[in-house]
Automatic annotation (TrEMBL):
Lineage, opening ranks: Bacteria, Bacillati, Actinomycetota, Actinomycetes, Kineosporiales
Highest taxon, organism lineage: Bacteria
GO MF assignments: isomerase activity
Pfam families (UniProt xref): MDMPI_N
Mycothiol-dependent maleylpyruvate isomerase metal-binding domain segment(s): 21-160
Full protein name: Maleylpyruvate isomerase N-terminal domain-containing protein
Assigned keywords, A-Z: Isomerase
Coiled-coil region list: none
Amino acid sequence: MSTWNAMSYEGKDTILRVVRTEAEHFFALAEAPGAWERTTPCDGWTSRDLVAHIIDTTEGYFKAFDAARGTGDAVPAPHGLPAMAGKVNEAATAFRGTPQTEMMDRLRADFEKMQGILEAVGEDDWTGFLVTHPYMGPVPAFFYAAGQLMDYGVHSWDIRQGSGAAHGLHGDAADLLVPFMFEIWRGTVKSDQVSEPFTIGIRVTGRNAGDYRVTVGPDGLSYETGELESLPAYLEFDAGSLVLTAFGRSNSGTVRGDLALAEQYLNLFFRI
């Protein structure tokens, strides 16, 4: 199993190393002169609100792990991804008025605590210990490492985007996140807008390169690896473009085949 597949225990050290790198980048970006109150691609949020969001998210992870271990209070039933945008906005904006130094100190402390939790997860628990995510329900422990990488990696991109400078998404973070983007799509698809099921292809390059057949219908989205040439359309992505597209940050990808079908697919998701 590849050390770049964070869904396996072999990928644990790799993703925790890359999460730390992305977190350090995020800390530096958030503390750069002029960044704190600068707008970002997240509607209504500045860099300050991104910091607050990651604090809220990470501290929610602490409660989820305690509940799963039986050492804390029970967590509420999952809210579902459609409710995520409103709830995280409410939590993040509640921190407004808190001094920057206090927030950054708290963020760094939360990061180290979460790294310690994940570093202590053993081989069986990495894939077998289920922890209830506030929006996605019970997921294996490894998903929380990916959640940290999504927060620090994608939100670092958000701060850079707000600066107006040319930039990109680091390949290590993007490669590790590729397999998780299909789960993001599965959780954010607007299946009520699909009357007839259809299948489209996704081709991704990078360390987690592969060809995927994605089927969307009124009952949701499913995916599997497989050949693409027989399909009416498929999209080609590098790893970074796939991540940014799945998170609604960019309109990217090369369409092979039916352009209208590809665009139908790309417009079937709500942003989180």
